[in-house]
Amino acid sequence: MTDILMPALSPTMEEGVLAKWHVKVGDVVSAGDVIAEIETDKATMEVEAVDEGEVTDILVAEGTEGVKVNTPIARLKDEGGAAAPASKAETPKVEAAPVKAEASKAAAPVVPAPAAPKSDSGERIFASPLARRIAAQNGVDLKSIKGTGPHGRIVKRDVEGAPKGAAQPAASTATAAATPGIAPRQVQSLAQMGIPDGSYDLIPLDGMKKAVARRMVDSIQNVPHFPLFIDVEIDQLMAVRAKVNKMLEPQGIKVSVNDFVIKAAALALKMVPEANASYTPEGIAMHHNADVSMAVAIDGGLITPIIRKAETKGLAQIATESKDLAKRARERKLKPEEFQGGTFSVSNLGMFGIKSFSSIINEPQGCIMSVGAGEQRAVVKDGQLGVATVMTVTLTCDHRVVDGATGARFLQAFKPLIEDPVAMLA
User: Fold this and answer.
1) DSSP H helical segments within 303-387, as ranges?
2) Which residues is 29 bridged to in the sheet?
3) What gap in Å lies between CA 236 and CA 249, rounded to an integer?
4) Which of 4, 105, 103 is nearest to 48 (CA)?
5) Stated pTM of the model
6) Kindly report the CA angle at 420 between 419 and 424, in degrees rounded to 5?
7) Facing residues of 125 across strands?
8) Active site (annotated) includes residue 399
9) Which residue from 235, 264, 288 is spatially nearest to 411, judged by alpha carbons?
10) Which end of the chain has fewer surrounding CB within 10 Å, N or C?
11) Short-list 171, 413, 166, CA closest to 269
12) Which of 151, 225, 287, 399 is catalytic?
């Protein structure tokens, strides 16, 4: 007998939602068959079997939230073998394999499904995650609804047609357990801080918010970071960009300022390889390629899809890839390998008019570059006052990997590439 375990679909995943089963007890599966769908904090993943046999037990029901990684979720009887008792220590355990990411069946909700409610008799009320979300948002009491889904499960259509009222109110007190890694001072109830209940609406943290909060707190607490600021003039870049886009117009490609930044950062990383590094307990990892992560805001959080080997790619290819990655990121269709494993990050808030800012390091990367808006400023050249379009760039460094001198050398390599971008077209 083989236990199928809840898979870890990313290095940071600790739990997920078992959204849907594609098999039932008695089905015979082969290696590679899709058996379930798992919701993570960033996407819905199809999961395939890595062994073959008959499904003897479904251990975790559809719609169950907070399923810990490596928890047994189903059990297979090997072909020709007998199913063993669940308590037998010799039962092999096989983790299911993720095969691809898909868009969430619901439209990337900001508010996650509340915990499964219970009836007055203490029995669990079975409802889909989407039904629970809609019920919580609309103030619908699930105890008063008769489900029309499989085995009486409450589904979306049942909730949408139900009258509002009598729903359990959202908890007004966040707990440390709900957001691991947040300091106790930050999870005090608002009432303890003088803000009365009923004076605000509480939006529960979804999986992505929890993951981002945990990672950012870990980074700010554990990484000795410091910022370096530099101003770059981008008048020539804007002129070159206009010419490049005119040439690429028949192909439907449009190069952005951020595409120039990604390319320049990648070339500068090859020129100063000490900046293209990560800290590990065993030593400093010096990366062979500039895999540049670009920060993309999506519903409920942030994700960093990666332009792999950006130093080897032209501006047109970078523009095409970045547009595609950003689009699929917002649709939650990225594969794990498309947003995990970058060596350097770029975060650009210039389109929002932000002049300058410092980003939190995206561990285990050694640096992250923050790009502000280009604006006309007074500059002095050869003793003469003039006007130029200037953009402020901030490099936040992990001092264990990149010291001040190394960070400064990187920016010295980056600045002329942006100010005279013709070199990037070669």
Assistant:
1) 315-330
2) 53
3) 20
4) 4
5) 0.63
6) 115
7) none
8) yes
9) 264
10) C
11) 413
12) 399
